[in-house]
Design a protein that fits this description.
The protein is mainly β. Helices cover about 0% and strands about 45% of the residues.
Length: about 130
Amino acid sequence: QVQLEESGGGYVQAGGSLRLSCAASGRTFSTYTMGWFRQAPGKEREIVAAAASWSGDIIRYADSVKGRFTISRDNAKNTVYLQMNSLKPEDTAVYYCAAGRRWSASPLKVPDFSSWGQGTQVTVSS
């Protein structure tokens, strides 16, 4: 199981940008599917983006963030990033980094990931 720790959250105005980072421990980082999830108060945790372990070009995004968010990974640095641009108030949530060993043709969900970071708060004001 890989250890994950997010950073980079904060308070921004609508239209602003943030870059989240997730530092991972372990020498098997490159074998994991990496994902970003978010959870707003009173709502279920939802996937934002995911990157397959075998290729950084195999990426999926939630429809709500397409064109605005970018997931990337640097296996040499054991780090995954989420660049968030054109932020909206509805993006406000705790954002979680996750790692798993599953990839599916259907959208990935919480059970597909076995390791989780502690979360970082992103607040977007109108």
